[in-house]
Amino acid sequence: MHGTPENIVILTGAGISAESGLNTFRAADGLWEDHRVEDVATPDAFARDPALVHRFYDARRARLAEVEPNAAHVALARLDAEWPGDLLIVTQNVDDLHERAGARRLLHMHGELMSGWCLSCDEKFGWTGDMGEGAACPVCTSPGAVRPNIVWFGEMPYEMDRIEQALMGADLFVSIGTSGAVYPAAGFVQTARYRGAHTLEINLEPSQGSIFFDERRFGPAGVEVPKWVGELLQSAQSRPMSS
Ligand code: BJW
Questions:
Q1: Tens digits of per-residue pLDDT, 15-45?
Q2: How far apart are alpha carbons 145 and 126 in whole angstroms?
Q3: Taking the CB of the first residue and of the last residue of the chain, which one, N or C, has fewer CB atoms within 10 A?
Q4: Which residues line ligand 1 (CB under 6 A)?
């Protein structure tokens, strides 16, 4: 790209956590007890079989205790700490590996595993351990009305206004480890590009929206992200942005 960018939006997906040992959704190993994510991550699936859906999320919440952030999460946290311009990491992931690596300018557009939502009083709160069907809400004490605070298919992702605003002001948009199969996240590259941002994809292989990126780097996130962050911080040092 020409010149040093000032305002950066970074979209991350399951691929950034793969080297930490978390399964992606659409790889051959992406099935859970033979279910596709589209069959368990919906309000209909939860209404039909809440025990199954709770098992899916309880297992994934438990798995978080066994994994650590990898070099890609650490590199993005370093970029967040050192980048003087605007920066927003928008993750589709519901794991907490970005924040455990130290990222601060971060939002979870598809919710968080370590959070619950009471359908009785509408409060959202931190949650550790199993949730299961009978969990009582810590706020209103209603039993059996707590669901994982996760954005399922057909539900509106979180913080869309803030994301839209950041995309409008971005001069660099970077997508890391996402297949580009799920909207609205898959459309962010086109919004950023339309506003004139340089667009970069870092992924193991071309994503579904690969043609919309100006630049593509293929390889494991744990290798490619630290390399890119090092280059970006180096170029910002040698060509400081206008104040
Ligand atoms: C590596 C790597 C390594 C591996 N290094 N890379 C028809 C057309 C268009 C849209 C729709 C449609 N029908 C329905 C819709 C809308 C629907 C949708 O997009 N459906 C598609 C299936 C078509 N979307 C919704 O319903 C969303 N809500 C919505 O649209 O509301 C209305 C709205 C309107 C207007 C504006 C705004 C909103 C909600 C979507 C909720 C998604 N939820 C899930 C599950 C819940 C979270 C959870 O349980 O974890 O979120 S689905 C699942 O997919 C999860 C993920 O966040 C999401 C994206 O997956 P991701 O991260 O891309 O993972 P993978 O596995 O697909 O890809 C991994 C990539 O990494 C691969 O490319 C690998 O190569 C790569 N990789 N190892 C680098 N080491």
A1: 999 999 999 998 876 667 678 888 899 999 9
A2: 15
A3: C
A4: 13-15, 18-19, 24-26, 30, 37, 41, 92, 94, 110, 150-157, 160, 177-179, 181-184, 203-205, 207, 220-221
